[in-house]
């Protein structure tokens, strides 16, 4: 029977928890305390949906059709690519529940406490690239819409937009997990309703006869489009998937975590891409304009009275995605050994984002081409890391040894040379089977594709690459699958030994003695 003192203590704990959820999160990469692990699997829907309901998903459809495939082929590519890539995110998210730490800290179990810094740098660069890209999209969209409204879309508008967008992203990221989760649940409704309104207002732009007239392409072209969709959606987020599940209750269902992560991330892009395919196939001018200003071009078919609501929704959706990226890139920075508070890490990445946005908006001649080239380049080792990490999760039957994640002398060791070798070999093979589709805009990336000619899959010419497989970017998928299979075969014994040691230690010490809050 509870006493008045017990009731008072319970109320005090509840009040303290509520207060923490409204304040700046100071937790960095340390293990989340058991009392803080109150999230439910369905809570994962909000951040993933809000970050991916951006109208940029519609713009991506034009790049899919750019592979020279039909609407039916493109539709299959978009649905399968989006769902499969976010399913992989969901599998990584299970590790967050098992270890209550950020993704790149949990990655230490597979790569070693110090060896993790290799994929950690790749992860940090990917996150920085994505969040900067989303910020740039928001600034350019603001400029385009202001220009159409006659409010001036020149330098002054871009400067103000860059400052406001960067401020929103950085402030939300500094605030941390609890405030971000609350904001994302609100943004989900705002951006979702605005997107539905966009569809209703532009339905007359869809011409089914034009859509069905688009000719079909080769299955190698379909593969290339599939890789682009997977890289641009789920695989672009996979390195941060566990960051948002580390607050899950320890008894939460792993299957439910996978489902809500996949459903939340995939449902909006799948629908938006489908509608984007209809628009792009119906209007060639729309497809061409998207290459320079994706979101702004989508606004050109809207009635003037809806431009401001569309702009607000578009910017908020892009900011939402960037917030997830910069929050996680800050955690990744800490996992690399930078010893500053988590809010300060978010500020550092925010400064980089702001500088990157200013450079692209005001000085760069083109950025979509180099960005996509950059994305495919990092997509190869990131896919390899994902294959290794998913296999490592599948091999483990126990929760992570949380203390060992921060101790190079612990059971995970300083370096796991098997994982690092798999990452290196898979990346070298993968890079040899992808090509730079933007040779003129990103000439620094023209070294890729070196295995295509020797294997008879493609041939480099003065005008680019020839051959059915040349632009399939099969190297990304190969890196993912090869790393997964190699890890299952080569690391099974090592993982079993780690868990046998864990069982032996638990028999002496007891599992509850090792659940304390561990710091870096």
Automatic annotation (TrEMBL):
Query: Which residues are listed as membrane-spanning?
Result: 44-65, 71-96, 117-139, 159-179, 186-203, 223-242, 254-278, 306-334, 346-365, 371-395, 415-434, 469-490
**Keywords (A to Z) from UniProt:** Membrane, Transmembrane, Transmembrane helix, Transport
Gene Ontology terms: cellular component:
plasma membrane
**Where is it chiefly localized?**
membrane
Q: Where in the cell is it found?
A: Membrane
Q: Name one Pfam family in it.
A: Transp_cyt_pur
Q: How does it sit in the membrane?
A: Multi-pass membrane protein
One GO MF term, please? transmembrane transporter activity
Q: Which domain of life is it from?
A: Bacteria
Q: Which family does it belong to?
A: Belongs to the purine-cytosine permease (2.A.39) family.
Q: What is this protein called?
A: Allantoin permease
Q: Which organism is it from?
A: Dermacoccus nishinomiyaensis
